[in-house]
Write a structure and sequence with these properties.
2 domains; globular; 10 helices; 56% helix; single chain; ATP12-like
Length: 232
Amino acid sequence: MKRFYTDVSVAPHDNHFAITLDGRAVKTPQRNALTLPTPELAEAIAAEWVAQEEDIDPATMPLTGLAQGALDQVKFERDRIVGRIAAFADSDMLYYRADESQQALIDHQAAHWNPLLDWARSRYDASFNLIHGIIYQAQAEETIERLSNAVNAQDDFTLAAMLSLVGLSGSLIATLALVEQVHDAGHLWPLVNLEVLWQEQQWGEDEQALAARAVKEAEFYAAARFLDLSRT
């Protein structure tokens, strides 16, 4: 789509903040008003619209995309979105450890991942079944219920960020640590990539894998920023 506007502004709108283009309110793809919960998020999204050149490139507007997801999807399909996020309570990547032939990696995972699980145990009164290998094993029903309740307690904008974060990280625990402001994205991104980084140290880097991870990293940091900016 060609850029069709000159001026980008932020305007108050029913206790929220709207983005306007040449004085007209921006709509989401589902024709909902693009209204944001905080002025900080609104200004950051306005900056994405200002930065567009001759053609509008949605790939360079991650905050706008996440806000659209909150307003078009989470608001109207909340139970489905909560379910997608909460599914990671039973399959969090932090549960899965190297097989017993890789003791050095097991120790490395324990040193870096166990403190995060210890926090979650205390915070959510949950227990975790650690698995050596890749064969699925179920977590306790109480654990799934408590983590699911923590997801369901979040607002629509937080859920939009969480949906992106769990998909990129594979970890609901790490995502909840961001939501609870226990750790920041800079601390958590290396943790959820720990095994890949370990293998690179042992065998060297692959350029295609590095490029793919860089894309995911940018998306992860954008979702974390969206989360921070949307806090009321």
